[in-house]
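User: Structure tokens for this complex, please. No commentary.
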Amino acid sequence: MQSNVECNLPTPESTTPTSCSESNGVELEKRNAYNKRAGRGQVLSGLTHECGVFGAIACGDWPTQVDIAQVICLGLVALQHRGQESAGIVTSAGKCAKNFNVHKGMGMINNIFTDDSIKKLKGNLGIGHTRYSTAAASEAVNCQPFVVHTQHGALAIGHNGELVNCDSLRRNVLERGVGLSTHSDSELITQALCLNPPEGERDGPDWPARIRHFMQLAPMSYSLVIMLKDKIYGVRDPYGNRPLCIGKIVPLDLGNQTPEEVPADGWVISSESCGFLSIGARYMREVEPGEIVEMTRNGIRTIDIVERPEQKKQAFCIFEYVYFARSDSIFEGQMVYSVRMECGRQLAREALVNADMVSSVPESGTAAAHGYARESGLHFAEVLCKNRYVGRTFIQPSPRLRQLGVAKKFGALSENVKGKRLVLIDDSIVRGNTIGPIIRLLRDAGASEVHIRIASPPLLYPCYMGINIPTREELIANQLDADQLAKHVGADSLAYLSVEGLVQAVQRNLKSANPTQVGHCTACLTGEYPGGVPQELSW
Ligand code: SF4
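Assistant:
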């Protein structure tokens, strides 16, 4: 396609400066040039995830004995919590392959991929994607990975995140005569990579130079897997806003060797590490912010590390720890579950209650509730039983049943709560429309007091980096303070974890090769945006 077009894309300065206070947030609301929420997936209850990316390549002789398509499919199943709208896998046999093998569809992984479709996805390497739409409509045309055919061969891309300067980037790509068939950031990235870098190319395409050039123009937010016929590039934006990590496929029998010592059967790259053990892989490390890694049949290596503008700090999304990631994933050298426990400990230090027991809204607040219990000395007991089949009912509830709200989703363990003063921990409050019915359920079951403790700070601002957050008016923390909210939902008291407390909990046991650069995005809590906010957006 457009592989020989001169590239002169916009600079990162096309985003506004770094802070979005309440007042300039109002200004933003007035700018209605392009409402990016249009066409997005609906935010029905809470926050919605972005996407999950996955890649796998076999080492040694090709054709490989490693079941690449199955590895990717299982890897995507482990990332299903990051997107349930659509998914896809693209595989390649190697340098001589005429075409990529592609299978994409709408819905959950298990419905999209069958034994037959997996058999057709033959190959020695491949990438996969599971999607929740943040920046384009939920339609089959937006399913990823995107595949384009350039003059230098086929290229496939999977993207997690959202480009903060996508509108100016889009205008510039269109001005270069490149057609875009969707509103997806991911197609935009794909086409931007097909443009020649400004320094030109001597002997065929210089993909690392193209990727580097794109990263200099689009500072955030993305983790990418990019597949050529015989290699995969893994790319993390210079702020490290979205996660990406590397795993090693090891032989089933390691003998006396450690996973580090044994030769790799293959390599995988993924948004999260939670699925690695189930596919016979071991977690090795994160892709560093700004890093470009190249995966071939010979192994994995760092091609380049692109610096952040003006030496700014990293800005890994703190809500990955709070809410999005699976508890068994590892970020920055620590397991997400441990960080959630630490949030609970910090919450107990900040907002202790005189009560008989601690519990959680399953399963979201459970790790934090255990942390709260250990720090406070109160004992932990379950009080809610979750109905795991509730999503399968096709019966429309009558108005009376609808008023009971979450009663169909949870049952109360009445023997545990009867006559008890209870501290109930949840990970976050977004709209505040689920906690009230839970409190009523517990009171109906005999709880004498219900104190709500939230293991994250109030959510006040939008996210422009790949997370779909309800509107300002819909966020309950913009309408009611903690005491008002307690009254509104029928709690005896309600308190949030502070922003400082959350950052401390996340950074207390963090392992970093470069501690001075450690940093986390807290923009939806503070309004301070690490890479600026797009001028064209409204919220
Ligand atoms: S604004 Fe919030 S949800 Fe978005 S990247 Fe930052 S911390 Fe994550």
